[in-house]
Amino acid sequence: MKKIIMTFITGLALVTASMSTMAEIQSLRGAHALDKPSETLDKRKQIKQKDGFERSYKIQPPMIPHTTEKDRISLKNNSCMKCHSEKNHEKEKAPRIGDSHYIDRDGNKLSDLSSRRYFCTQCHATQVDADQLVENDFVGAK
Amino acid sequence: MGKLKKWCSSMVFVGIGVGVLLWGGFNWSLELTNTVEFCISCHEMESTVYQELQETIHWSNRTGVRATCPDCHVPKEWTHKVYRKIRASNELYHKFLGTIDTPEKFEDYRLTMAMNEWKRMKSTNSRECRNCHDFASMDLDKQDERSAERHDPHVWEVEDGIEPSLTCIDCHKGIAHSLPEGWEEAVDNDPLLSAGLEALQEVEKE
Q1: Residue numbers in B near A77 (CB within 8 A)
Q2: pTM of this structure
Q3: Could you list the residue ranges that cross the membrane (chain A) (predicted)?
Q4: A125 marked as part of a ligand binding site
Q5: Backbone phi, psi, residue B180, to 5°
């Protein structure tokens, strides 16, 4: 009998404790009602910036100063190379892909874009005029 | 004599009636084959190039104007249209042969098909592009700086009535469908398609 009462009391204490913690936890939706549609974010367009963005640190892959919505990188073709390749960059007045992009993982210099550098958007990103997620006073290295 | 005259005049009316029916029927069926629905009724078109088109600006854009298959691939003028339709019998032949009936076969054949279309465009001075895109109504001030800069000499060629040095398709390849593998080399090695492109290289370098 004593055992049963003890178990009951412990159980009650646990339930009370967990309920009080639950009250502190808040959903990521905040106080937004469950049956309401989620808040929509402002639509942002990809930015075009003449002469490109400045780098924030020394070896930063340059950010893309134009839209790339219509560009496609596939197994057969890389549409970035229409302008940025060795062959086309002068005609298109576009920056040529860096020398490092011709070197394979064994350090051999290739005549064409190395396969490990093929997926441009892995390092180079388009930009939108977005608000800062967290207020900060970051200044890039000059 | 009176009987013959009557017969003749009735034959004329019958002839006109039959003519209108045949002519109308011919043009009606011609237009029936000039729709997206007709084009994508073959899976060869529906599962490949049609899907690619849907990701491009010719499919969806700010102003909601859409270009579909026949707008670019079939001439608008009647004689050119009928000529193109007759040429299309070759495409029917290959449909029955099954030349491109799998995605793999389509990819193997993509360069050949693209080259055919580019050559057609180049030899007609990109006639189908110009059904909608007319230099006379193109406002270069509203374009991106680099686009305007590159269009400018060609606008003046048209203005001055000079033979165009380049045509739309020379630069605007792969705008509605994926580019075939090895297209750049293929274009450079083709005498028709590479014509005028070297001049561009030099002009832009200056």
Answers
A1: 174, 178-181, 183
A2: 0.79
A3: none
A4: no
A5: -75, 155
